[in-house]
Specification:
Length: 260
């Protein structure tokens, strides 16, 4: 997923992963539950090791690894039924999510089960601006304690209109497992966002290929993911100029670059 990295002004092969990390991006955390290996009152040794440098390729040993490790201990969960919203992927004007924002597509949020009881359902409200034109989504699934899931909330394109001009998006877990959960302070998440560009007249999609046009595809999709227009099998160093006449709605223009 290095192609989602918003820090794209780098030379070299920035879209590709390097030993599990993406250039210019934050390093992914890894969590290991060692509870089964720890006995109360006993001493436990924890070791970390990496793969040996291959004898046939000693140059791999020229790299260096800077590790940061933390041992976290905790007791039983404070609540039995508790669900939390921990992030909003879109809409969101945080620069880290700039590869898929601004947007008028379905909002995407991340929920987490912070209760000891498995989270199997949630009633979620989303709205733009003040508490107005609320959309309610009923999620079902199965999340154990501290497990997370990304949820996409279906909305209509006209829902995005911000009547108060506040450009804020809010999501709230109203109920968890069919009831009000035991801790409400983590139920709501609000972010600011940048509205999408509105085009009322016909417009051009003007695209010029480089010397590797075989690696590129261009698609225009509507709110439901239907392909309205596409260009594939492109020719090197060629300009394509296509006029678009679109019905009112939310559209996404995507240019993909694959390594053939």
């Amino acid at each position: 997923e290095c192609g989602d990295n918003p820090n794209i002004g780098q030379g070299g092969t920035w879209p590709y992963a390097r030993e599990g990390w993406c250039p210019g991006d934050k390093v992914t955390d890894y969590e290991f539950d060692i509870t089964p290996f720890v006995t109360s009152g006993a001493t436990t040794s924890i070791d970390y090791d990496i793969e040996d440098v291959p004898v046939s390729d000693p140059a791999q040993g020229n790299g260096n690894y800077v590790m940061s490790m933390h041992l976290i201990t905790y007791g039983a969960p404070n609540f039995s039924v508790d669900a939390a919203i921990v992030d909003v992927l879109n809409p969101n004007d945080w620069k880290y999510y700039s590869k898929f924002n601004p947007t008028c597509q379905n909002p995407r949020i991340i929920i987490r089960n912070t209760g000891s009881t498995a989270l199997t359902s949630a009633e979620i409200n989303v709205w733009v601006g003040e508490f107005d034109n609320v959309v309610t989504y009923h999620w079902t699934g199965n999340l154990e304690f501290l497990e997370e899931e990304m949820i996409e909330i279906p909305v209509e394109p006209e829902w995005w209109y911000d009547y108060q001009g506040m450009t804020t998006f809010s999501a709230r877990i109203y109920k968890a497992n069919g009831q009000f959960d035991e801790y409400s302070n983590n139920n709501k998440y609000t972010v600011s966002f940048e509205p999408t560009v509105t085009i009322s007249d016909p417009f051009y999609i003007w695209f010029k290929t480089n010397n590797k046009a075989i690696e590129n595809d261009l698609t225009l999709t509507d709110q439901d993911g239907n392909i309205i227009f596409s260009r594939a099998t492109l020719t090197n160093t060629t300009e394509y100029k296509d006029t678009m006449y679109l019905d009112p709605g939310c559209y996404t223009l995507e240019i993909t670059d694959t390594d053939h």
